[in-house]
Amino acid sequence: MRATYMYAPGDVRVIDAPDPIIAHSTDAVVRVVRSCICGSDLHPYHSMPPNPHGSSMGHEFVGIVEDIGGDVRTIRKGDFVIAPFAWSDGTCDFCREGLQTSCRHGGFWNSGEVRGGQAEAVRVPQADGTLVAVPVAEDSPLIPSLLTLSDVYGTGYHAAVKGRVGTDTSVTVIGDGAVGLLAVLSAKQLGAQQIILMGRHKVRTDLGLEFGATDIVAERGEEGIAAVRELTRGDGTHVVIEAVGHMPAYEQAVGVVRPGGTISRVGVPQYATAPIGFGTLFGPNITLTGGPAPARAYIDTLLPGVLDGTVDPGKVFDREIDLADVPDGYRAMDDREALKVLVRA
After folding, report:
1. What range does the record give for the signal peptide (predicted)?
2. What backbone torsions phi and psi does residue 77 show, to the nearest 5 degrees?
3. Tell me, what DSSP letter sits at residue 119?
């Protein structure tokens, strides 16, 4: 089969790779119908140590079940399935608590013997706990929106849930990438009346307005902080969703959060230390939360709105390419020519 591997910063190749096969009785093999490139894939694209063997790529995909192990009970051959970006057994204590990203028998794509989703097929461990079957055809117009449930929609929703967004909360979302935009949509769904989106790309912020943003702040740094505070009578917002992962975004979050408020981080942090002292978080009683979204936990909640057309999170995809063109897709996203790239396997 053909699969995407990254060998060094900026070096993405689509190569021939072994076809996946059932390795354990709880596995499934999924033929990928659509995958995509994530903003978090750009972090190794900028900084990964060179690897002569390459690293498989991709953690978001939907597809058709081609084979199952002997102990798989809830998934059948021929099912169209959504694969969350972490695989999990669905039965351990963490899974039962809705934290599948900490599953005692789970993991993440592209680790160990488990390969990635930017490929023609994937071996899925713990198929019963991981995969969600959906009654749609593989040519359904809903496919892009269903694919967002693999990661970015669930991650945006997780950010809002961890921030405790509700009808009495104001929200600032930092970052106009796919996760930030779907955090706007999620905050709107949870009842937020004021949603300030901080972003500089008009096409993206226009989509943010469509998803429910009430205000757009294009400025960054101290100017951006001042603009948000002007919109909130000097206080800042109850919740700040940081959907970027770089230190300037964290510093901006600290600058616009209201005393007693919450910063919810879902941008993969590209730093190991950050200010949390008296003058930043401790003194004003700020809660810091977030982390990798247990996307599997949110699919049952978010799926009905996608299926009935109430929401259309698939609008974050603004370019579709063939698997062979994935290297160009990475370049387009890195150059901000594309918001999020959909990949036909």
Report:
1. none
2. -55, 135
3. B
pLDDT value, residue 31: 98
CB 144 within 8 A of CB 204: no
Which residues, in sequence order, are CB contacts of 115 under 8 Å at separation 6+?
A: 3, 17, 20, 56, 109, 122, 123
* b/e map 97-130, b = 16+ CB within 10 Å: eebbbbbebbbebbeeebbbbbbbbbbbbbbbbb
Instruction: Please identify, in words, the CATH class of the domain defined by 2-151+294-344.
Output: alpha beta
Q: CA-CA distance, 169 to 261, in Å (whole number)?
A: 9
For the chain, the domains span 2-151+294-344, 157-290
- Same topology, domains 2-151+294-344 and 157-290? Answer is no
Q: Is the CATH number of domain 157-290 3.40.50.720?
A: yes
Residue 242 belongs to what H/E stretch? Answer: strand 237-242
Kindly report the number of other CB atoms within 10 A of residue 26's CB atom.
21
C-alpha distances (whole Å) from 146 to each of 60, 200, 225, 316 are: 11, 27, 35, 12
User: Which tokens sit at 131?
Assistant: 């995969």
Tens-digit pLDDT profile for residues 238-281 = 999 999 999 999 999 999 999 999 999 999 999 999 999 999 99
